[in-house]
Amino acid sequence: MTGLPPVRYTIAPIRPASHLFEVTCTVSDPAPGGQVFRLPAWIPGSYMIREFARNIVTLRAECEGRAVVVDKLDKHTWRAARVAPGRALTLVYDVYAWDLSVRAAHLDPTHGFFNGTSMFLAVEGHAERRCLVEILPPPPTTSRRWKVATTLPRAVGEIGAAMPMGFGCYRTDSYDELVDHPVEMGTFTHEVFEAAGVPHEIALTGRHDCDTRRLCADLARICAWQIELFGLPAPVDRYLFLTMVVGDGYGGLEHRASTALLASRNDLPYPGMNGVPDGYKTFLGLCSHEYFHTWNVKRIRPAAFTPYDLQSENYTRLLWAFEGFTSYYDDLALVRSGVIPIEDYLGLLGKTVSNVLRGGGRLKQSVAESSFDAWIKYYRQDENAPNAIVSYYAKGALIALALDLQLRAASAGSVSLDDVMRLLWQRHGRTGVGVEEDGLFALVEEVGERGGKGAGRRLARWLAKAVHGTEDLPLARLLKPFGVACEVEGASKGPTLGAKLAPNSGEAKLASVYDDGPAQAAGLSAGDVLVAMDGLKVTGSSLEAQLARRKAGERVEIHAFRRDELMSFDVELAAAPADTAKLTLAAKPPAAALALRKGWLGG
Ligand SMILES: [Zn+2]
Fold this sequence. Notes:
The chain is of the alpha+beta class. It is globular, with a radius of gyration of 27 Å. Bound molecules: zinc ion (ZN). Residues 289, 293, 323, 326 line the site of zinc ion.
């Protein structure tokens, strides 16, 4: 729709110490009967209603300097009264930005960060209009050295166009694009590297001692591997990792040409570091995960997200494919690109298997159901979550693994899940056609048939059952032909209470009580604070050692506070359940297994 006037926005980090951005939105041809504006209720990639409008502190409208009446229609919708034809209407509003996550906005005298979904009111009827955004610098008392990191395209050719990494004008072709490029401003570290010929950038905000050369080298391998997996050309002509470094944090959100990340300082590589410590593996896995979304969910999308409805829940049963398959490939990319050794990868896979086995919810909820109810369950977990919910991330990743192994085994390694991803990319990613709710099964059948007649049909049926059912996956049996052993044991030799303690709380406070475990049978509940076992004091750090000296079947008296009342519970200890998986390379596997494993994990 070229030719129609653009919607113009300005963003000013006007009061950093008060965490306030001032935003303006100007429409040059408002609707004749009064113009309606809306702020999104959620941000794509994070499936929960967040009601960002609650952070709009003040809002007014004006037309050529004169105030215009604004009505609020619902929690995130406003309507400005009609103005004379040919006159522009401007909304001016303050956004409170003090959410240090990747999902909203944050502003203080050290930096500013925002997602468009927290800042830009959508102009009803103008979703396909071009947008021009002027990003203004902070007040001079803050810092004159602030720069801007974003993949928003610069408004080259417009008056006030931003210079690279500068304040000034940026532009997009639509509202959908406008809200899919987060923006960081401040005095961050900025590095550039190339992967498969595409420039990639990383911006690190917050104090850090990161060995950026090491980080860029590792990310370059991971990104290049992913680009090769889907095939050239890459879906982007530049990509940006926006990273907020904090003492203790973890989070990531995918966007079409960038990702916003929250990372723990000690997870980043430091100069002289040897090997790949667990924390760094976690951070690289997070980067790999969000990068994989550049294809899987940002371009290959569920039909239910085509387009997104940002006002209310968008239901799909497919998050096991978009988050689960992405979770499978995030760590797989680390080993396939040579960044971590195979043994480390098997260790990561073992953790995922254990995570799934530790939740009894996996026997009650399918990953399709978990996807559909993400808005009220996975994203709003309470103390009963382990008993009621299965993670479409973790179990979705294991379904991807099981599918990959079966595709490879049935075809002597000639087809794999990689072929399914490439077919998804061709049919849906490149075309923009959304994936229907049952769309994956036909694609798996098509790819599977290439590897052996009948194999595709069998695997498509297996996948439907795995996705809609609650049975455990036969991973040990599927891994064996690849020369990988999978053993499942109890987490400890000693008995268990069947409960999870709240982390970092010193006292032995129960975070969750597992269904049908000893604690639940004795009447203990989440929230109870254990103070003694058989008359001896119990703390968060001593409980495990005290249990290790006991045997399954023994009875112990536990004293605990519930609310302020001391209560006594008679607990019969049980053996620790077999929920800890260990994956190892089998000794002297046959040549066929070695060949299959090489195709799967490289090396
Ligand atoms: Zn994800």
